[in-house]
Amino acid sequence: MVGRLAGAGPRVAVLMGGLSAEREVSLSSGHECAKALRVAGYDVVALDAGRDLAARLQEIKPDCVFNALHGRFGEDGCVQGLLEWLEIPYTHSGVLASALAMDKTASKAAYAAAGLPIVASVLASRDEVAQGHVMAPPYVVKPNNEGSSVGVYMVRPGENAPRLAQSMPETVMVEAYAPGREMTVAVMGARALAVTDILTDGWYDFDAKYKPGGSTHEVPARLPDEISAACLDFALRAHRTLGCRGLSRTDFRWDESRGLAGLILLETNTQPGMTPTSLAPEQAAYCGISFPDLCDWIVKDASCNR
């Protein structure tokens, strides 16, 4: 059994790493959060989440779990269900919201029912995608249940239908390409923090998101007041529509030539990155919330409630 230091604050197990394609990003997020929580006065145990996770948590006996996992198993309701069963309070969204947000088709249906703007998409098999265009280009092909731009194919007019890697799931989402600026809004409880304009030389892919210099962030974004207000409103409505709690981040594209009609909601991330290049901590800092204070707030918001 791991002993508790005399005089230490509540014990927090920071889950990181895990089994998904986003393992390395999660390790970075987890290490940053563990450091910040120690600064905030917590007794922190950093835990690489493997298949023995339940046994490790029963050994550590944390007062709370800080879930810094990204991608499948850690962000899709699976780990959340385990923590519910173990009756350990945990951060971020619960089982249903996590599962709903990770399933891009299901979350888009929820957005549409709430009157939030989305683009057309269909589910198709890898074979169907390779045999011919399932919608007119330009379109994007991506897994229905991954994040961080893992496994994303951009198909432009005049290009052949893509042959997807065997590592892609058998069923994928094909989504109409939304042109324009890439923007994002973090939501912290009942508060939409700010709008960030994400500037890159090309596609906002995995490298652009996580490698130093891959992108630059302008916060607050220089936008017409109507667009800024809509982004904040839509992000908060998406958070509530999916039933999120704690911290989330919703991504947008905006075609300036179409005004408000050109603003499209892409997806909501229930466990935003917490790396040195991540967007949600950057928005919190803009609002005067330090990284240790942000992590402290996330822990205090934790619960064991689906």
Give a verbal description of the structure:
This protein has 306 residues and is of the alpha+beta class. Among the domains are: 127 residues, D-amino Acid Aminotransferase, Chain A, domain 1 (2-Layer Sandwich), CATH 3.30.470.20; 56 residues. It has 10 helices and 12 strands. The strands form 3 sheets. Strands 10-9-8-11-12 form a 5-stranded antiparallel sheet. Strands 4-7-5-6 form a 4-stranded antiparallel sheet. It has a 3-stranded parallel sheet with strand order 2-1-3, sandwiched between helices. The N terminus is likely disordered.
- CATH superfamily of the domain at 101-118 and 179-287, please? ATP-grasp fold, B domain
What strand order characterises the main sheet? Answer: 10-9-8-11-12
Sheet with most strands? 5 strands, antiparallel
Helix and strand content put the structural class at alpha+beta
The fraction of residues assigned to DSSP E strands is 15-25%
CATH class of the domain at 101-118 and 179-287: Alpha Beta
Mean pLDDT over all positions = 91
Helices and strands, in N-to-C order?
Answer: EHEHEHHHEHEEEEEHEHEEHH
CATH topology of the domain at 101-118 and 179-287: D-amino Acid Aminotransferase, Chain A, domain 1
β-strand number: 12
Q: Termini, distance in Å?
A: 29 Å
Level of helix content? 25-40%
CATH architecture of the domain at 101-118 and 179-287: 2-Layer Sandwich
Number of helices: 10
Gyration radius (Cα, Å) is: 19 Å
Low-confidence stretches: 1-7
Shape: globular
